[in-house]
Design a protein that fits this description.
- The complex is a heterodimer.
- By secondary structure, chain A is mainly α.
- Chain A contains 14 helices and no strands.
- Helices cover 76% and strands 0% of the residues of chain A.
- In chain B, 74% of the residues lie in helices and 0% in strands.
- The chains are: A mainly alpha, B mainly alpha.
- Chains A and B meet through helix 1, helix 6, helix 7, helix 11 and helix 12 of A and helix 6, helix 7, helix 11 and helix 13 of B.
């Protein structure tokens, strides 16, 4: 097992180096000059420009700049944002919990609704429930989520007035973050009204972000379940006279869930991509909105290090999923 | 000699039969047929857009700004689906938008397919360091969330429809490369390839003529999926202001400019999104049907 994990880690080292190269050079070829961007509207004198160039190392050969960047990243220094003059890592750490909270709730929503829907659809194959569920799932899978978010805002915020339009919590509450997770923090403070406010802010974005994963999980669960229900051991279990419920819940489900877990893991990258759109629509202060804002503000340092951090997270999660998969399914380890 | 000349006939007959068999499995899936009908209609709408659209997509009727659709009491019979914030006819813009979305899908799929197939065939056929190199590059592309990578690429290339299409094609092609590589690796040691090799076929012939046609099934399914993904991603980029630029009647871009009116004039937001959803849904329905018809493993179940 340890052997397998080590082999997997060794395999991603060249990929990580490649990612850092991409993040660095992508941002270097972005049009515009980082020093002029830093100076803002006031501009700089030519002398000051040269001093700044030297100070930030932009006068060095590009390769040396890359190695300097890599060196400081390895020491945990991801640079200083041009726009806010704060360390990129600090900004990332303050905003990341908001994205995690949103993504986690979206994923829980997708799993809690998607897996039972998929199971029922498979068990009642061909019924109207199956057809309607799979029709909805395919529609969800085809959904432009930025439009879906706007529709939900029109209906729930505009027409019914049930939910707020944007943000994480009503501005009347000011709580110093403890964990950064609004739902947990408000409970830790024992502020029930704030908790309700945070929850009301979270529902729509979580539904929007969870829609595509929900559709994927429901479809995947159904087809995995159908495959397993046709297996000999399920037939044996039925022939033994076990109740249909026990056959489905114990014999079939456990085996059907293996591919579903992989699917859930693979959704993480998509979830981070979806977070860009969801956070933009709902003005959710997470890393998706941060990246979009930084791209449009041409904040090179943030785009560069943000890309690197996000790619590393996606890779770490994929590795975790692979290892988890090997734990559940021993056959994979020998390969 | 006569034997060799006779060979083409049975091949032709078998492809005809193959198509009939394929159509048999495809037509069983009602959703897939509906998808195909809707998609055909969309293609016709796109082709005949200037004839079908009641107004020019850019004509601004300053006397009729934000007119609601015709079923609303405030509706104007001139504008079936109402007008946008500068008084342009929604229906005409939507009809012209079909051209952009379908063209985006086509361009991206052809581009991603072309590059992905070449890289995948090279990696799978030669193996070794070629394979390692190509696949590491694909891993790197796949490590970034695709929309984020597309956004950064567009920021580098400059916002605009063409650059958005190029960025999306780059982001989508690793899926083709991986698929083709796996299929080529599975096929290359089969006997028919051996036979072709022994009869002196060149590398290029082996790769493109002998092996590739046998990997076609999964490729077609992936191409359909990428077609709908390309339309969604391009609309998302347009929505974020990085894709087609106003006043282009691209559906995502239309949504971006309509955003501030969501509560005052819901129709300017509802229809472009609905158009995207219908198009993508139709293509995904076709994709499901293709997968069921082309995947021999699922056929029996």
């Amino acid at each position: 097992m340890l052997n397998y994990i080590l082999r997997r880690v060794a395999l991603i080292v060249p990929t990580i180096i490649g990612i850092s190269l991409c993040a660095f050079f992508f941002v270097r070829v972005l049009p515009g000059d980082p020093i002029l961007a830093m100076a803002g509207q006031h501009g700089v004198t030519p002398e000051r420009y040269e001093i700044l160039r030297e100070q930030f190392g932009y006068n060095l050969p590009i390769w040396q700049q890359y190695f300097n960047y890599l060196g400081s990243v390895l020491q945990g220094n991801f640079g200083i944002s041009l726009a806010t003059k704060r360390p990129v890592l600090t900004e990332f750490m303050t905003l990341f919990p908001a994205t995690i909270e949103l993504a986690l709730v979206a994923m829980i929503f997708a799993v809690v609704v998607g897996i039972p829907a998929g199971i029922f659809a498979a068990v009642k194959r061909g019924s109207w429930f199956d057809q309607v569920t799979m029709g909805i799932a395919l529609t969800g899978y085809s959904m432009p989520i930025f439009w879906w978010g706007l529709l939900l805002i029109i209906f729930f915020s505009g027409y019914l007035g049930w939910t707020p339009v944007s943000g994480r919590i009503a501005l009347t509450f000011f709580l110093r973050p403890i964990t950064g997770f609004m739902l947990i923090d408000t409970l830790l403070y024992g502020n029930w009204a704030a908790f309700v406010s945070a929850l009301r802010h979270l529902i729509l974005p979580a539904v929007v972000l969870g829609t595509i994963p929900l559709a994927v999980i429901a479809r995947q669960t159904r087809s995995a379940m159908l495959e397993v229900l046709g297996e000999d051991y399920v037939r044996t279990a039925r022939a033994k006279g076990l109740s249909p419920r026990r056959v489905v819940n114990v014999h079939a489900l456990r085996n059907a869930l293996i591919p579903v877990i992989t699917t859930i893991g693979l959704q993480v990258g998509l979830l981070l991509g979806g977070a860009i759109l969801t956070e933009t629509i709902f003005s959710w202060p997470g890393i998706g909105k941060w990246m979009i804002d930084s791209i449009s503000k041409r904040d090179y340092v943030v785009v560069q290090s943000g890309l690197l951090l996000i790619a590393l997270i996606v890779m770490a999660v994929n590795l975790l999923v692979d290892v988890l998969y090997a734990v559940i399914n021993p056959r994979i380890r020998v390969k | 000699m006569s034997q060799i000349q006779a060979t083409p006939t049975p091949i032709k007959a078998s492809t005809g039969a193959g198509f009939r068999e394929f159509w048999h499995y495809f037509a069983v899936n009602r959703g897939a047929v509906i998808g195909l009908v809707v998609f055909t209609l969309l293609v016709l709408i796109a082709i005949f857009a200037p004839l079908l659209a009641p107004h020019s997509p850019d004509q601004q009727y300053r006397d009729a700004i934000l007119t609601p659709p015709i079923w609303d009491a405030m509706g104007d019979p001139r504008f079936l689906l109402g007008t946008d914030p500068v008084g342009r006819d929604m229906l005409s813009r939507l009809i012209h938008g079909a051209r952009y979305s379908l063209f985006i899908g086509l361009f991206v799929v052809v581009g991603a397919l072309f590059v992905g197939v070449i890289l995948g065939v090279l990696a799978g056929y030669f193996g070794g360091w070629v394979d390692a190199m190509v696949m590491r590059v694909m891993d790197i592309i796949l490590a970034f969330p695709s929309l984020l990578l597309a956004l950064v690429l567009v920021a580098i290339l400059g916002p605009g429809l063409f650059n958005a299409m190029v960025a999306i094609a780059i982001v989508l092609q690793p899926h083709f490369a991986r698929l083709v590589r796996a299929a080529v690796m599975a096929e290359k040691n089969r006997e028919y390839v051996m036979a072709a090799k022994l009869s002196g076929a060149s590398h290029i012939r082996l790769m493109l003529v002998t092996i590739l046609p046998n990997c076609l099934g999964p490729l077609i399914v992936q191409a359909t999926l990428s077609f709908s993904n390309a339309i969604l991603d391009a609309a998302a980029l347009g929505f974020l202001g990085m894709g087609a630029q106003p006043p282009t009647p691209e559906w995502g871009t239309m949504l971006a400019t309509a955003r501030e009116f969501i509560l005052r004039a819901p129709w300017v937001v509802t229809f472009p999104g609905l158009a995207i959803l219908i198009t993508v849904l139709a293509i995904n329905l076709i994709g499901d049907g293709l997968r069921d018809a082309l995947d021999p493993k699922l056929k029996r179940s």
